[in-house]
Design a protein that fits this description.
Blueprint (H helix, E strand, L loop, with lengths): L2 H20 L6 H8 L2 H45 L3 H76 L5 H75 L1
Helix pairs in contact: 1-4, 2-4, 3-4, 4-5
Length: 243
């Protein structure tokens, strides 16, 4: 292989390795987010979009060049076969056709996996944010619940302490305090309801992101099976060539 196609093959193998590491189940999205927040990645993020688009353009150019080569040598292969030329020239054309097809598969899979890698990183970041938001909302709900229970317990103790006193002023003061406590309880219940709604919303969004990530993982497994089949075909073709 020439230098450019050797680089594309190495890039493809690197993409496969990175995607496999990103899909490891025992590394949580929150841990990946911490890794992405390292100062080195923060500096690289400034150039990430430019680098992504540049690699996309290069892979598209290589893919189109490979398509052109495949069409070129396919037509020559048919013409040489029809002309019944000598076997050495025919084998040379077949070798050129095989290399162009190999380059087509390398550039095509590299382009596809580059898009998959970008999408995987985006989904991991979104899932990590949703998990962090979910944990914060759950903490708020627990705090609001504990505060409401505390106010209700204080209200009950106050009612028990003032239940046996019949003085009008104290009764009015007790009624005012009780009304104030009721208002505070209603306010806390309203805040608790808002927090609970936000928690359920975040939970629903997290489930949707998780479902999308599972779909992406299934798609990647299917792609890996196709890649293994293609690798087997390439190995068989190289074995036939050696023979």
């Amino acid at each position: 292989m020439t230098f450019q196609w050797t680089a594309v093959a190495a890039f493809l193998y690197g993409e496969v390795g990175v995607i496999l590491v990103l899909c490891l189940p025992f590394i949580s999205p929150l841990r990946w987010q911490k890794i992405f927040m390292f100062p080195l990645w923060s500096k690289m993020a400034v150039f990430w979009n430019k680098m992504f688009l540049t690699i996309i353009v290069l892979l598209i150019v290589l893919f189109l060049d490979a398509v052109r080569e495949v069409r070129k040598y396919s037509s020559v292969h048919v013409n040489e076969k029809a002309a019944n030329v000598n076997s050495s020239a025919f084998d040379h054309i077949q070798m050129k056709l095989f290399r162009s097809q190999r380059n087509l598969y390398l550039s095509g899979f590299s382009l596809f996996l580059w898009l998959v890698l970008r999408r995987t990183v985006t989904l991991l970041t979104q899932l990590a944010k949703e998990m962090a938001s979910h944990a914060a909302l759950e903490t708020q709900v627990n705090d609001a619940t504990e505060a409401a229970k505390k106010y209700m317990a204080e209200n009950e103790r106050l009612q028990e302490a003032l239940s046996g006193k019949g003085d009008s002023k104290k009764k009015e003061s007790t009624d005012a305090t009780e009304a104030k406590l009721k208002e505070e309880i209603e306010h806390l219940k309203a805040e608790l309801q808002k927090t609970s709604n936000a928690f359920h919303k975040a939970k629903t969004e997290g489930a949707a992101v998780k479902k999308q990530s599972e779909s992406l993982r299934r798609e990647y497994d299917h792609l890996m099976k196709e890649f293994e089949q293609l690798q087997q075909r390439l190995n068989k073709a190289e074995d036939k060539k050696d023979l």
